[in-house]
Amino acid sequence: MSSQRPRIRVGDENVIYAFSPNTKPITEISAPASLTVHARDAYDRGCVNLDIESYLDQRTPGHMNPATGPIGITNASTGDTLHVTIEDIRVGQRGYVATTPGTGLLGKAPVPPAVLPFDVTNNVVTMARKIRLPLRPMVGTIGVAPQSGSIETLSLGQHGGNLDFNDITIGTTIHLPVRTPGALFAIGDVHATMGDGEAHSGVNIDAEIDLQLDITSRQELEWPWFETSTELMTIGVADELTQALQIAQGSMELLLIERTGISEEEARALTGAAVDFRLGQAGGYGVPVSVYAAFPRSAIAT
After folding, report:
1. Which of 145, 190, 222, 261 has minimal Cβ neighbours within 10 Å of its Cβ?
2. Distance between CA atoms of 255 and 262, rounded to whole angstroms?
3. Radius of gyration of the chain from Cα atoms?
4. Residue 232, SS3 per DSSP
5. What domains does the chain contain, in order, with CATH numbers?
6. What are the pLDDT digits (tens) for 10-27?
7. How far, in Å, CA of 186 to CA of 219, rounded?
8. Cα(164)–Cα(275) distance, rounded to whole angstroms?
9. Regarding predicted confidence, which is higher, 300 or 182?
């Protein structure tokens, strides 16, 4: 896609808290398109004063994890695939983690509630003025509307959603199956850094995201899948880890068959020989578990 294409800016004044085919788009574009999308932090800026009690008091159930959008793609139809390439992620100067009761893998073993600031300077994320982490910006929530119903942005599934996968970062292309006319794309929940699996929470932060969007009139998989310069990746989402692993492996086998023309038995053998599984969303937020199957592109390069 041409770098000379005019870039469309989408502000964060309008956000969604659920993906739905019935939501009116905040703007409409035709793909291919270049976008810069502004995204609020996952706390909806409720933690900027570092007051946990104030945040907990003003938090509205069902209004968490804001995603900028939806953005209507005028030439996207049901059965198409929306291709989203992340060109850049520019984060704000400060991010936040709230140790809210009941949150994360150890939610039943709570620590004192607090809002902890993480300051970003020169590609370093600093907590408590002494703990220094490398800046690893990634997008937590990205998706399109489901065919019917409404799915909170905190959840995830075949439409995408709160995927929380560290490889959804600069240089990655996300392939999203379009379920409804216009796709109704939305994005948000950027983290300055996040551990694989998101045991508690990544560092939630405001951001600007540069994207390239394109459309093709076919679908290779029922689930989203991903490409980097070195890997092909598929996702599995389920209530249990084993089920999620099975979905991710099955999707990878289908993708390898589609890409290479190998047999079912050859695809099965390759998944055991070369596929790495990684945790995505596994922090116990009352949403399904996600895992990712990664296969080296070098193995099928021609």
Report:
1. 261
2. 10
3. 19
4. strand
5. 7-219 (2.60.120.580), 221-302 (3.10.28.20)
6. 999 999 999 999 999 999
7. 20
8. 20
9. 182
The amino acid occupying position 15 is V
96 membership: H or E segment, kind and range: strand 94-98
* Residue 196: exposure state from Cβ atoms within 10 A (0-12, 13-18, ≥19): middle
Q: Which residue has the tokens 């699996």?
A: 197
- Hey, what amino acid is at 236? G
Q: Which two tokens stand for residue 210?
A: 């540069």
Helix, strand, coil abundance in the chain, percent, nearest 5: 15, 40, 45
- DSSP, res 179: -
Q: Is 213 helix (H, G, I), strand (E, B) or coil?
A: strand
* Per-residue model confidence as pLDDT tens digits over 79-110: 999 999 999 999 999 999 999 888 888 888 98
> Can you tell me the distance from the alpha carbon of 54 to that of 32, in angstroms, rounded to the nearest whole number?
43
Q: Which two tokens stand for residue 43?
A: 């706390």
Which of 57-61, 97-101, 275-279 has the weakest average pLDDT? Answer: 57-61
